[in-house]
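Reopening: Cation transporter still failing for me.
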Amino acid sequence: MHSRPTDEWQPAHGFGQTVRRPVERRVHAVIALTIVTMIAEVVAGWLTGSMALLADGLHMGTHAFALGLAALAYILTRARALDRRYSFGSGKIGELAGFASALLLGVSALVIAGEAVARLFDPRPIAYGDAIMVAVIGLIVNLASAALLGLDHHHGHDDGHDHHHDHHHGHGHGHGLDTNARAALLHVLADALTSLAAIAAVGLAWMTGWLWADPLAALLAAAVILKWSVDLGRQSAGVLLDRQAPEAMRREITAALESDGDSRVVDLHLWSVGHQAWTLVAAVVTHGDAGPDDYRARLPGRPDLHHPIIEVNRCLGDGPEHG
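Support: Ran it again with your exact input. Result attached.
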């Protein structure tokens, strides 16, 4: 039995997920803007008899749902941050919400593409005035929303030395958008893109009578949105499936652990447990007497590296060669 409490040896369990992020307030502001616009369009559509306004107002409801999912993910992440039932914290709740948003984006892209193909083969008259008015309203609202969400990205972009296709930046000392906020941003950018495409295509059809311009523009917009969906899904799935950290970060950690010239890292697992939060499990072979605490002390001073576990194996050979 230990005669003293063991609390001092227990590592912190927050994994950097207990702090409220500035971008969360911006998500709330965008939700409020979306809901106000939705109500205004539905009421205006009802009073004027404009089906275009009514339909776009109801469409805004789907974006409010997606943004609400992002807001809920932030709340749950903080609420569960210190819950030890989650071995590596609650950071992946945001990744899970991001993956769900990627699926929603993909479905919306396929719905747009399907409707566009149908309109190519069966062109229908366009209420040009109403269509352009609704598209302009949508573009303004979504550009304002994107500006609000993108502020955090521009003011504190991660040091993007190692983009790796999955956008896990090799050095997480910035405050760039996490997957959850990026998903919310992509939703409003997708809507802004469709509004912009509609303005251009409907304007062209109005001037020339080319009804095929509208569905063609919608198809192009759907292809871009589908690409965004796939990229977001790959990024969030990589974190959810514990994909290894970028090679540059792995080399940095390995060099630090092997800095005595004798030690060799024989196994290294380094993965993300949430936005700008990493953890590692490493096995080291050495002739020396250094213990796990000594190796942890060699690690670079990274506030984003949590709960490192290091196994030390003694090499009983005579020299520094470990094979």
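Residues 254 and 265 are 6 Å apart (CA to CA). If you still see a failure, please send the error message rather than a screenshot.
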